[in-house]
Design brief:
The chain has about 600 residues and is α/β, with parallel strands linked by helices. The chain folds into 2 domains: about 325 residues, ABC transporter type 1, transmembrane domain (ABC transporter transmembrane region fold); about 150 residues, Rossmann fold, CATH 3.40.50. It has 18 helices and 10 strands. The longest helix is centred in the middle third of the chain and has 53 residues. The chain is elongated, with a radius of gyration of 36 Å. The two termini are about 55 Å apart.
Length: about 600
Amino acid sequence: MSQSAARRTEAPEIRGQELKNLRRVLPYIWQYRGRVLMALASLVLAKLALVAVPVVLKHIVDALDRGEGGRLVLPVVLLLAYGGLRLASSLFNELRDALFARVRYHAMRCLSHQVLEHLYRLSLRFHLERNTGAISRDLERGTQSISSILNYLVFNIIPTAAEFLLVAFILLHGYAVSFTVITFATVFAYIAFTLGVTNWRMHFRHDMNRLDSEANTQAIDGLINYETVKYFNNERYELERYDRTLERWEEAAVRSQNSMSLLNFGQGAIIAVGVTLLMFQAAQGVVSGVMTLGDLVLVNTLMLQLFMPLNFLGVIYRALRYALVDMDRIFNLLDTREEIVDASDAVPLDASHPDIHFENVYFSYNRDREILKGVSFHVPAGSKYAVVGPSGAGKSTLARLLFRFYDVDSGCICINGQDIRGVRQESLRRAIGIVPQDAVLFNDTIYHNIAYARPDASREEVERAARLANIHDFIMSLPQGYDTVVGERGLKLSGGEKQRVAIARVILKNPPILIFDEATSSLDSHSEQQILEALRSISEGHTTLAIAHRLSTIVDSDRILVMDEGRIIEQGTHDELIARDGLYARLWRLQQQEREEAREAGAEPAASVPV
């Protein structure tokens, strides 16, 4: 099937989707329906005043042309009426804008809020696969499209239709039917031509939007990973990749502009023919004595008033279609299904004495690769369990499942006897605190990043958490102290400093369940020992799950689970596992050997053997 045939086949479906999207806009303006009605009333009054202006102008011209004795009084009255009508038209137009401003900006606010709320509800799987740049651009264009569509409908399309009906009434009432026929024929020819050509060229806009989002995604992705780009000297590669996408965008933009020029010329030609025919009819009427000079002025002015917004209507229609395309992307985002949802009968989690129970859990991110294979273990309330094993064994997946970022494929995870699929997500996550391996901070102050765990915390509580995390003294040594901005993703801080901020944050949250996912991986041995003391202190009375690479950090655990290829292959205390001489013992000896070699070399080990 040819591309043109495919587009014709898809056109009804696209138009149906656009009408559906327009209906979805209505709830955003329903709250201010009173303002909408008042704005529409102002619109009608403005158009009545505007259409009355040429009628008054006709009488002014006729009065002056006849040279009547009262010409010095009558034109003055008519001129005052002329000025008053123009003033009234401007007044009601501005009143319409003022009344509708609240409707328009409230709709933008509501949609922006709804989209962001929906994005937060979508699963971690979606956010790992999303393109931040494309979503950012879609969100910006989508919310702006709501404002554009409301403006086009209320301020352009409806007013033009109202003015057309008023002009048609005047022509039918006072002049030969040929004037109305020419006007109607011109308007319908203009609309048909505009709709036909605009629909034909819409795919250029689709291509432009797609390539614009793709280029924006590439640019933002490269800038977010600035250091990686520099590490590999790949500035030229990133620029060339970006430019190749922009080159395709440029071609689509040029085709769009050329087709727009064709559209504009065709619209201008139709209007020129229509106005010329009307003026020829009017001039002939004046010559034959059927019409006055004022009638000629009236017809000419009415046509100019009608065709000026009609000419703009072509631009409006194109912009409306573009806005509908942009709005479709944002509504498609809103239609993205939530993967993790609360059950209809979900209850709050009882985390008063939380124990954790994994029962025969199977899980895979993708169907072709199973990550967890029948994992079962029980963490009693108030105890500290550790999970170790080679990279890819599934250790961090345990934390993600416990937070219910994903649902298990089979088996269940229970806290205090409650299947977490049957509790409210908000209560579940409130009960768990995590120090992740890669502590990512907000581009805000250190104080904001620590207080993020509990925004209503006092400054004393925030500083106490920082002291326990052994970072208070470092913060106070900075020129701006707690008001120091850490940069995007916390890049102005070292890895260890970011980790300590993350530890302070979870200390401030003080949840009953703690997860340490490589909580000391970015620290040197001296700092590590200080942090371990703090972690041991805050772990007292908490149910703790520690995921570790450095085995030295978890030797005091009540029980250590050793994972390999998605299964728990060993478990016991540190001494029991060493005595068993299995995988754990081999990894322990390897790390001890690495530490000894580093000590002999007089340097800290750069990194532990990944386990």
